[in-house]
Amino acid sequence: PCLRAVADLGLRLVDVYVPWGVHELRAGELDLGQRDARKDVGAFLDMIAELGLLAIVRPGPHINAELTYFGLPERVVWDPACQAKGPRGAPVILPAPPRMFPVPSYASDAYHDEVTRYFDLLGEVLAPRCRRPDQPDAPVVMLQIDNEGALFFRDGVYDQDYHPDAIAAYRAFLRERYGTITALRDIYGAQARRESTPAHEGDEAADPAGEPAEELRFSNVLPPDRFAATSLDEMPYYLDWAAFQEQLLATSLGRFREAMRRAGFGDLPTTHNFPLAEDTTPLNAARVGEFVDLIGYDYYHRSSPETRASIAARTSELSVRSDARDVPAFACEMGAGYPPYFPPLDERDSMFTVLCALAYGLRGFNVYMAVERDRWVGAPIGPHGRKRPFADFWRRLCTAIEEVELHRLRREVPVRVLVPRVERRIARVMHAFGPASGALMAVMGQGPRESCLEHDLGTGYPLALAADDFRRTLEQALEARGVPYALVGGEDRDIAFHRARWVVCATGGGFSDVLAQRLADAAARGIRVSLGPHDRRWDGSLRPLAQDVLEGSGIERIQGSSATAVRAAVSRAVEALDLPTYSCEPGGVHAAVHASDDGEASVVFVVNPTSEHVGARVALGVDAEWRDLLGEGGTTSSAGVLEAAIRPRSVRMLARRG
Q1: Last residue of a domain, which of 542, 577, 612?
Q2: Residue 468 is part of a domain; what is its CATH number?
Q3: What is the pLDDT of residues 82-93, one digit of tens each?
C-alpha cells in the first residue's frame, strides 16, 4: 500500500535505505531476509519493479536516518582503530540522540576494510538488481554513497581528524604539494607542530635524545590543533590543513565507490547529499565531483526572508553547477516533515521550501520522508499507506511539473558571484567558536562576520570578513534591481563562466593562479569580470605574488564594500550588458523567470517569504495571461507588469497561457 501511495503522488523513484547496523548479525554476516522477512531488501526491490517504479539505493556505510549510531554497527563505532581522533588522540564523540557515539574516521583503513566486507556481502543481493546492459529491467538505477559526508557534523577544522591514518595521508598530501622538504620549510618556517619520530630515508635524523628534531620533516610534521597565526605568512600551514580535509573526504567517497564497484554494483550513476550550510564544511563540490556523478543538496528550511535568501544562494549554485555538468539539479532530501528532536517544520515550511528551490533552479527532489517511519514526524503518507491531507500538495506539484515540462525550461542567470575556495578555507581556519562549527552557526543564521576572528594579520582589514561582507552587499544590490544571479565556488572554475555575462569575484585579496588565469581568459572572451572589495595581492595560499596575470586584463576593480560603490557597479553592468531585471514591489517579494528554448518566459515563481499578505507587482517586460499551476487562480501581466496576490510565507507558480 505504501508503494502504491507513492506512485499515486506522481513520484517515479523510491529511495531505499539499507542500514548496515540493522542488517548485520555479526561481523561478516548479514540478515537480508533469511531470518527476518522485514529485512528482505531483494524482495522489496522486486516489489518496486513490479509496480513500475525505479529505485535509488543508499547502502551507506553511514546513512543517519535518525538511527542509533547513524545506522552503523555498534561494534564498528566502538572499535578504536575505526574511530576518528581529536588533536589529543581522544575519540570524537557526536552528541546525537538517542545515544551519543564516537564517529568513524574517513581515513581509517580499518574502517574502510569493514565497509568493503559489508558491501561484498550486500552485493550478493543488490548486484542482480542493479541496472546494466545485461539487466535492462533491473530496478536500481542509482546509488547514494554515504550521507552528508561532513565528518559526521563534527566538522570544525581543529575538531578532527588526527587518526594515525589521517596523519599519514596528511603527510603524503604535503609531500605531493611541496615536493621537497626544503620547499615545505620555506613556507612553514618554525611554526608547524611536529613529533619525534625515527628518521625516514631522505629526511634528516631525529634528535638522539628523543626530543623533537629542530628541523621540520615530512615524517614528523603535525597539523595545527588551534589557530595561532599572527601574520599572513603563517596562513599556509592552516589553509593546507583545511585543503587536506577536503581531499580526505573526496577520496574517501571515491574509496567507497570503488568498493561498491568491486562488490558487483556495476557502474551505476552515483550521488552524494550535501548537508545544510555545505559551504562552511570541508565538502568541496569540485573535488567530490571527481568521484561522484551527481551532487545533491538536502533541504530543511523554515519559511522566512532569511531562509529564502539561503535557499536562493544554495540552489542557484547547485543549478549552475548541475547545468554545466549536464545533470539535473537534485535535492537528495527535500524535507516533508522533520525528526522529533529538530525544531518543528510545518507543512507551510515544506511547501515554501520546495517551491522556492524550484524557483531558483531545482529540477528534481526526493520527498523526505514520503512515508512515515520511526523517529519522523509529518510525512504525507502514513505507515500503512493512508494518504494524509499533505499528500495532495505533492500530487498537485508533481502534476504541475510534468504539465509544464519544467525540466526543459531554463532560468537564465547571467551574473555569477564567485567566491574563491580560499575564502571558505579562511573562514574555517579562523572560526572563533571551536566545536560549534561554522556549519552550526550558519544554520542559526550566522555568517563569517558573526562567527570568525577579526584578525587582520597585517592586511589592515579583517581578513575573514572582507569577501563575505562584499558578497552580501552585492547580492542585496542585485536583488534590489531584480537581476538574476548565481553564487559559484572558486574551484568550480569552468562552471563559473558557463553561460555567464558578468562574473564578480568576491575576494579579500588572494586566490589561486589557476582561477586568476580563468578570470583573465574570460575577460579576453568578452565576459565582464570584476573584483572586489580588494585587488589580488596573494595566491591561493595567501603567499605574495611574483607576477599577477590579471595585470592589464581590463578587469574592473570595485573598491570597498560600501552599498554606494556596489550599487553603482551593478548599475553600470545592467546598462552595459542590458541585463534582465525583474524588480518586485513591495520590498521583500522576489520573482524567478523560467524560459523555453526560444527565450519566451513560460513559468514565473513569485516568492513572498514575509508574514504579510501582499499584492505583488513584478516587472516582467511581457504582456500575457497566467494561470496558477497549484490552483490559486489566474492573473495577467499588462504594460509589462504582472500583478498577483500572495499569501504569507508562500510561493505562486504561474504558467503562461497559450
Answers
A1: 577
A2: 3.40.50
A3: 999 999 999 999
User: Is 397 part of a structural domain of the chain?
Assistant: yes
Q: What are phi and psi of 432, to 5 degrees?
A: -95, -5
Do 153 and 169 reside in the same domain of the chain? Answer: no
CA–CA distance, 538 with 350 (Å, rounded to integer) = 44
Residues 271-281 have pLDDT tens digits of: 999 999 999 99
Cell readout for 109 is 583503513
Q: What is the CA radius of gyration of the chain?
A: 26
Count how many domains the chain has.
4
Instruction: Say which amino acid occupies 290.
Output: E
Cell numbers standing for residue 617: 507587482
- Long-range pairs for 343-347: beta carbons < 8 A, 24 or more residues apart: 343/302, 344/377, 345/300, 345/301, 345/302, 345/378, 346/378, 347/378, 347/390, 347/393
Judgement on whether residues 58 and 122 belong to the same structural domain of the protein:
yes
Same domain, 489 and 631: no
CA 107 to chain CA centroid, Å, is 21
pTM (2 decimals)?
Answer: 0.95
Three cell numbers at 305? 526572508
Nearest to 120 by CA among 16, 37, 27, 40: 27
Q: Give the C-alpha distances (Å, rounded to integers) separating 302 from 337, 367, 444.
A: 11, 16, 11
* Structural domain for 506, as ranges: 415-577
Q: Is residue 327 part of a domain?
A: yes
Of 525, 545, 577, which residue sits at a domain end? Answer: 577
Contact call for residues 195 and 220 (beta carbons, < 8 A)? yes
* Nearest partner of 330 among 376, 279, 393, 269, judged by Cα: 269
CB 104 within 8 A of CB 83: yes
Question: Is there a domain that residue 592 lies in?
Answer: yes
pLDDT in tens, 313-363: 999 999 999 999 999 999 999 999 999 988 899 999 999 999 999 999 999
pLDDT at residue 210, as a whole number:
39
Q: Does 107 reside within a domain?
A: no
Q: How far apart are CA 538 and CA 548, in angstroms?
A: 9
Contact yes or no for 276/302 (Cβ under 8 A): no
